[in-house]
Predict the structure.
Amino acid sequence: MAADSSPRDTKRVTITDVARHAGVSTAAVSKVMRNAYGVSPGMQERVRAAMAELEYRPHAAARGMRGRTYTIGVLLDNVRNAFFADVLDGIREELSDSEYTVLIGAAGFGADEQSRTIRAMVDRQMDGLVLIAPGTPRSEVLSMAATTPTVVIGHHDSSDVHDSVIDADDVGAGLVVDHLVELGHRDIALVSAPGSRSGRWQRPPEIALADGFLQAMDRHGLADRARVHHSAYSDDGGHAAGLALLSGAQRPTAILAGADVAALGIYRAAADLGLSIPGDISLVGYNNTAIASLAPVQLTSVDQAGHTMGLAAARMLIERVEGRRDRAMRTTMTPRLVVRRSTATPSLP
Amino acid sequence: MAADSSPRDTKRVTITDVARHAGVSTAAVSKVMRNAYGVSPGMQERVRAAMAELEYRPHAAARGMRGRTYTIGVLLDNVRNAFFADVLDGIREELSDSEYTVLIGAAGFGADEQSRTIRAMVDRQMDGLVLIAPGTPRSEVLSMAATTPTVVIGHHDSSDVHDSVIDADDVGAGLVVDHLVELGHRDIALVSAPGSRSGRWQRPPEIALADGFLQAMDRHGLADRARVHHSAYSDDGGHAAGLALLSGAQRPTAILAGADVAALGIYRAAADLGLSIPGDISLVGYNNTAIASLAPVQLTSVDQAGHTMGLAAARMLIERVEGRRDRAMRTTMTPRLVVRRSTATPSLP
DNA sequence: CCTCGAATGGAGAACGTTCTACACGACTCC
DNA sequence: GGAGTCGTGTAGAACGTTCTCCATTCGAGG
């Protein structure tokens, strides 16, 4: 009955069609597309006209078999962290008027799932990868990076096989501690991601942050009052951490959360316990995402310049993809403290 | 000097390697992979063993030239809308133990950019597409859907070429109006997206919402007191709308915002004008995103079950991709009102 | 004129899959 | 014992590009 049972059978315009229409060879068309050497202006024009007329679009899968696919893959664990959105915007901006398309793999927090996603990207012959704080074993990232140009964002471990973009998280932690101490706080807690040095990453961002926090506390002679609580960087994770810290015996007067999302969870926990912010507790986030500046929240936070990190990552990646650089490099961003209304002088006991 | 100048030259394991290693033909290996008909158990085993031993991973680009790529593309305008994250989670969950990989294209709000991203996905031979409230012209979506199985989320326009998943936005608006009227409100305003019926979509979600709102007001005999204000679904958009509505002459006592993000902007505007919520103004959001339940906010909102929408969309899409269904269908979700602390009896004048 | 080199265009072999068509043997059925 | 059928495996042609050679033309230099 249905003549067109499968929707797939509408034919695509191929390079052969363009070639025939322009009266040239497919090789010539290919050259024009890649603006390779050895094409006369006349041929350029004819071929371009034919492409336009037929609405030709190159078949990316076929390209993938030989050359580039003009696809950049970005791996992130979840889409809810607004910091990643900033990074993503930076990447997109840098690539917006290039031929590259950005595709995102949101792999979840599991290392296996992330590995699977990275492999999926490599198998799809993506030209380059941006991995945002990957949870996969380091060895796996290194072996993938040996094959596909890769930029790792977040992890402080450097390598000669992939490029890196990192934030000076230790400095960031220092800024926060200085600010809080200046306000008069002594009992300061850090809520950071579990941060097992798993998969043989030596310095994931949460470890760098924790180290910086402890050093700064030490610098102020408060090493023995520093506390670190581990929890996932999510709303629920922050909530649980908040409940644990704020209902415990030695209640801190200020908390630094390693991510704004987690800070909001702590905010919620404080409310649950009838504690006001910043009246009873000072709260600081990390990443300075859009939520931090939101009206009812007004969270003091550390700005990591996610947008700029994205720009840098994309630029570095394309250099590698196009073979303009063959040595690994790293870019380090300097964090900045943005003081809002969630921090204040501690209430007297 | 550097012997391995290009990182690309490490050879991949191909189907041919597997075939040779197992002492069979490539065709046989291919059959085993796709568990096609006509393979003896013995062959199965030998081939699988060889694949495992060589750590074979199929080359997706090559697959794309003939059969499936086992890739599902999801288009969304921006990654910051938490509702999309819910949908995405649903899609991922449904596909988590299938062979399909989900790749996301975050295209921004521009129609052109979205079109480009959709085309990029089709060109990469993705097996199926999920488009979340696309801003591209309807005709373009239809022509792409003729070629690649597609599920459109959000737009109420139905079509016999793509499947749809929608929320009964009119019902949702009704729930809100009923709730507010019951509390004693009469002057209720809706803030919804510009909702030009652009690109020939007849019923994008914002239009459905506005229609439902007006009908519900009419049902309560309040048609002449209903007001609709248009603004972008963003924090700033909501802020502007809030200022306009709340500082104007006929101030409404309650506002329904078409998205939680916009509701937060209105929250901010109210604060700027010294109005308290819910003391002076009742405020309702839409989508019931995580921010709505946030401690300092406690926004009454309409839950759209994004997660379930994602599940449904993925399931429908795979049915189509695998050819188990050849007729378009649509799934409609029922919204649910979640009452929190941003709505109350109106203050007496 | 002849030779050489540069500039331009084309032939055709990859690339790694899928899938149609067919070969072959072993059964079953009259 | 011949004809059909079934089950299992393979050969080999696509698929749409890229890219390495090679052929041709044209001009300049001798």
Observations:
- The radius of gyration of chain B is 25 Å.
- Residues 24-28, 31, 37-40, 43, 62, 64-66 of chain B lie near DNA strand D (CB under 10 Å from a C1').
